[in-house]
## 1
Amino acid sequence: MSTIALDFRRPAEIAREIPDGLRIPPRPRVITRAPAREPAWREAMRWSLIALSASLVAGEVALALFGP
């Protein structure tokens, strides 16, 4: 059989018949960039807060176990 007998049309031909208002818009182009590196002072503050919290918890546990 020929493609004419099967009423074969290319997708581009079919797409031309779709009105502009009904077409799916193209996917937006997203530009990705590397995340900004954190300042050193912020990382130092984070680790000092973690250490302070761990020290506080260790003190509370020690008081609970051996305290008055």
## 2
Amino acid sequence: MYQPQQIPYVQPSIIQSAQQNYLHHAALADHYERQRMINASNSIEYYHYAELQYFHKSRAFFFKGQFSAIDGQ
């Protein structure tokens, strides 16, 4: 017979940490997007900042998924 599992209690500090990491990486992604646009004429710098932007954007999505899944948002 199916036994429903109890949802484990998650400490608010874990949710808060994931939200803080999300905001940190989202801000860095925005910063590197601006740097990428500033250096549009220099292809080496442009792609360097594009790589940093997409790295931080992916980390932001990762942390958003963590606190959204935990918090139910």
## 3
Amino acid sequence: MTDHELTTMLKDLADEPAPPSRIDVDRARRAGGRRRRARTTALVVGCAAVVAAGGVTAVSVFRHTSVPPPVAVAPQPAPVAPVPTDNPLVAKASFGWLPEQVEGVEYGAGGHGDYALAIGRGELPPMIWLSVADREPPVPRDLSGTPKRVPQKVGDRDGYWLTADANDPLNHGDSYLRWPTADGRWAQLHAYYLAALDLQRILTRVAGEVTFANRAVPLPLHVSSLPSSFHLADAGLWRRPDTDGVPWRVVLQYSSNGALVTITVSLPGGHADGLGKPECVTKSGLQACVAIDKAQAAGVTAHELLSRITLLGPDEAKWTPHVIG
């Protein structure tokens, strides 16, 4: 075969169509799909086996999802002890630590509010008022401007200073500190005339050491009984020696059929509160006075009421929390 003939044959062969492929593309695609589905099924079956064995959620294999945090359970308010019924003066809260400027603690209950008052001496004695409310109290009327809240931790509680000046949490010395209590109520300190370089720290410490419980305040008298028509108007244990000349004074006021009945107990020489001409007795180193503005409406005379009173003396360690009955 000449070179020319060979060249001609190769050219003719190149021009022939290629032989059919031995690979069926559609068949291969279908087979590949079956194998992929088989692998997926095996994976799911394997995960199901793991779930059955170990409690793993199968869907987590395919989708990354963050585990939801546990649902926080709101703490239940601690129960509040019942209010004693044999004492007209019951404190809802009591001070723990107090600064040196404080000379004593007063208590009040009734129409003019329930409070404990840490008080000092002098013409303008330093005062720290402690009160407890069932809900967050409103803004005091005498707080000027637009009130601001400055956060303040009181123990583990998120409280705040209430002030007219956001740059001065102490409100220029007329300070309000509020915080929620463990039993679901709200406590407040209102302090003024209290001078100290670290006043913010002092008041925060005072607040942090307050205890919350209904506590009958011991008083220097016992009353055998009161007429059923008597309803408490106000009760107070006051400590104002610079004002009334005696170290303390107890005042219990009752309304009765439109009359006002006032019992005052102090050291001899103390001022008798109330309306009407007081009748007084001195026993066991103490003075007791009863004033009634409308004796006929009250249903009892001052003399009769005094006869029901036993005085316990000036030693506060001998006073009783069980006052009535």
## 4
Amino acid sequence: MGPTRLRYTMIGFIIGVFIVYMKDLPIGEGTRFAAPFYLAGVGLLIDGIILRLKQRKGNEE
């Protein structure tokens, strides 16, 4: 894993952990406890999109 991939994954995971501790949110308990893993995956998706955009930009120049 590259440093940016790990960075976005950990940011998503940490935000998900905060969601777990917010008990006043109107979401189900199972979804709340799975949020760190969902958001870690979202972080990986965002990193993939950013890498593709950088590659396209590099190919155009």
